[in-house]
Amino acid sequence: MQGELLDKVIGFKDAQTEFVMLQAPDEQLNLEIIKYHQPIDPEGARMPTANRLGLGHIAFEVDNLEETVTALKQKGHTLVGEVQTYENIWKLCYIRGPEGIIIELAQRLEG
User: Fold this and answer.
1) pLDDT category, 71, cuts 50, 70, 90?
2) Fewest CB atoms less than 10 Å from the CB: which of 3, 14, 28, 85?
3) pLDDT tens digits for range 85-102
4) Residue 17's beta-bridge partner residues?
5) Spatial CB neighbours of 52, under 8 Å, sequence gap ≥ 6
């Protein structure tokens, strides 16, 4: 994936990724694994220590993205990039959560 939409959601310019989505048989759990090809992290791959706080990125599906973002902003959290719509299927954004964790919020749009 690449392009203006991705750049606006994650807050990077000229980002390039590839990803795979895994879904549990009961469809109650999805796992998305993303590899970034661009931009390259200037520090390269690092082996985090066991006491490193937080996760790099976790995603939640929400019923109403605007209400969720508004409520989180009122609590002092900030968007990483912008709210965007992906192929008229998902409305999504990244927001900074506790201890700087990047939280992806996604709302499935009705067809």
Assistant:
1) very high
2) 28
3) 999 999 999 998 776 778
4) 36
5) none
